[in-house]
Hints:
With 178 residues, chain A is mostly helical. Chain A has helices at residues 3-30, 33-50, 60-78, 87-103, 106-118, 122-132, 139-146, 150-176. Chain A is built from eight helices and no strands.
Amino acid sequence: xxxxxxxxxxxxxxxxxxxxxxxxxxxxxxxxxxxxxxxxxxxxxxxxxxxxxxxxxxxxxxxxxxxxxxxxxxxxxxxxxxxxxxxxxxxxxxxxxxxxxxxxxxxxxxxxxxxxxxxxxxxxxxxxxxxxxxxxxxxxxxxxxxxxxxxxxxxxxxxxxxxxxxxxxxxxxxxxxx
Amino acid sequence: xxxxxxxxxxxxxxxxxxxxxxxxxxxxxxxxxxxxxxxxxxxxxxxxxxxxxxxxxxxxxxxxxxxxxxxxxxxxxxxxxxxxxxxxxxxxxxxxxxxxxxxxxxxxxxxxxxxxxxxxxxxxxxxxxxxxxxxxxxxxxxxxxxxxxxxxxxxxxxxxxxxxxxxxxxxxxxxxxxxxxxxxxxxxxxxxxxxxxxxxxxxxxxxxxxxxxxxxx
Lengths: 178, 217
């Protein structure tokens, strides 16, 4: 394989492997999925241009997160968002992202969450699926699909998510036992 | 984060549902309370993971188990009687079918058993889906093993496991990994399919069931 396809393959693999962690950080900063997608595209461009500067793949995520933070600052300058993003908050959240990744890697959270989703009743699982499958554009649409009022459906979603969180924490605690 | 109401506040911030003043106050806390910032990041990641899970689930309809199960690696009559033994027998079967270099087999066995420490993949109703990711896999590879006597697997319902589907995914295909897991776990929710697998006496009979149109939920 020539050098260029190999470089592209390496880039794709690293970006895919760490997309969820990067997405989580950017989403926490901008709180909009559309903006997060846009910013991650900018991140991918910068990562592509500067991948050769990365000497150790183990350092990819912190490196790419720092690129994401700079892209967020650039986004802050060009967007009309009110109030504008706070650079200090972006920095604190980047530090939090690093701590969380070290204490609980994204892949671990994903595995545990999936196992806990499998443990839900079919009705609860179906409701979470409807909430997140991208087909319920508005709260009213979700309520219609789920067969309830907006308030009652969101209360159910909130309860199920709280149960999922408890399940993940329980499994993590069990894992930490000697 | 110790207070449940903090979780509600953070979720409301993430959903853009807080008033400007409340959002400012919470952002000020996020800058000075590392535990709160960590919780916020964890919740944001949870949102991403739930979206990925849901979208993967909607994409699995067209997939068939015969897309990733290796026919020559099916084990219709498992000899192993322990969790470790079953994982070993199934991974070695994929290895014998020529899908991994010799050195990788041991690593894949260890990685699969390490994943079991996070919580058993025995999902109850006599079914388990041990899985891992490994660089030796160039695509998602799976095998099916049947144990007539059943193997203790720390399952959710405490019962022995008779039907095993082992999956090994490449490191760089997290979406496909998720979709495949969902596919398997969906198909194996059909008690009729599980019963048919347990009754199948040969690898060919099992293979025939995997692509059968009756079992494509």
